[in-house]
Specification:
Blueprint: E1 6-10, H1 17-31, E2 34-38, H2 44-47, H3 57-88, E3 104-108
Parallel strand pairs: 1-2, 2-3
């Protein structure tokens, strides 16, 4: 059986990111794999409940702005954890897998 060429690590929040990356890098080391770290930012319009006539347009706009800021902050925190983990584990960040069989990683958002 050949090893895993690419491992997808879904990074959803700052609380679970360290454990997810640790496991992905552990498996990647055994296989010489490329880790694709994927963070999907939430869509603020789906995070804000629409209550219809009870809210003004300005209130909805403010809620959307707050949700967007929170999504951006979370993405920034998760990205920083990814960068730190790559540095700690001496894993180069490359867009595509290298030919050397050495573990590499890339950030996708």
């Amino acid at each position: 059986m050949s090893g895993y060429k690419t491992i997808l690590a879904s990074l959803s929040d700052p609380e679970s990111t360290p454990a997810t990356l640790q496991l992905a890098f552990l498996v990647a080391r055994g296989q010489g794999s490329h880790v694709e770290a994927l963070h999907v930012r939430s869509d603020p319009s789906s995070a804000v409940p629409l209550v219809g006539e009870g809210m003004s347009g300005a209130m909805v706009e403010e809620m959307l702005a707050v949700a967007e800021r929170q999504s951006a902050e979370q993405a920034s925190q998760v990205r920083a954890q990814f960068d730190q983990a790559c540095l700690h584990h001496d894993i180069p960040i490359l867009a595509t897998p290298g030919d050397s069989g050495k573990v590499t990683a890339v950030w996708r958002e």
